[in-house]
Amino acid sequence: MARIDWNLRSRSRSCLRCSRPFEDGERVHSAVLAADSDLARELFAEAFAAEEAAKAAGQPVKARPEYLRADFCASCRKSLGSEPWISVWTSVFTPPPAAPEDPVKKASPEDLLRELLEGPEPENHVAAIYLLAVFLERKRILVERAVRPAPDGTSVHIYEHRRSGDILLVADPHLADSEIADAQKEIELLLGLREAEAAAAKTAQAQAQAAETQTTAAQAGEAQGAGDKAPEKPDAAPPEADAASRTAEQ
Ligand SMILES: [Zn+2]
What we know:
Number of strands: 7
Bound molecules: zinc ion
Radius of gyration: 29 Å
Largest sheet: 4 strands, antiparallel
Helix content: 40-55%
Oligomer: single chain
Number of helices: 7
Strand order of the largest sheet: 1-7-6-5
Shape: globular
């Protein structure tokens, strides 16, 4: 299997070179480049240095991806010229939406693809990742920007998320028919599990809310009960008690 970057890379909010934040509606120039290139060493000098420092300090460091994404403003992109980019494209910058308020799990193929790509063992889900990406491309959620041959004879597809501008590097494992069937089963199983988890999370949330409402109601009841000092003998219920409590309230 190809050793590739499994990370999903989001469009940056600022130019990699001059650090100027992108404005709403500005045309962003994006590129993918090999992480072991001179250009990457120059552009990502700071990030690479930080990585080395963390390694030297014995901190756990995520493996450096094989490909990196870079986003530039128009003038920085112009000054860089025709470097050996693997893929270049432009898109219109829109500020990323705020994080959703409801953190309840979702179970769409798109969520599953992100989860598998960003998970601890993407190499164990190569076939499922590839099939999900092809499915999302057909749905026009992903756009294929480039295909690169991988060292092992397979290929790597560079997809861009149409709405968010995220890029995904997905290995094409050249699946045999039987492997496609297995991967489809895996996807169905995972989506089914996620749906069940999402439903369980929703139920738990609803129960927590209901419990909260009950607690509030009970507290209100207690407060009321404490206030009117119920008589010890309920059948006695002397009208004086009522009168007394009314007097006390005044
Ligand atoms: Zn710039």
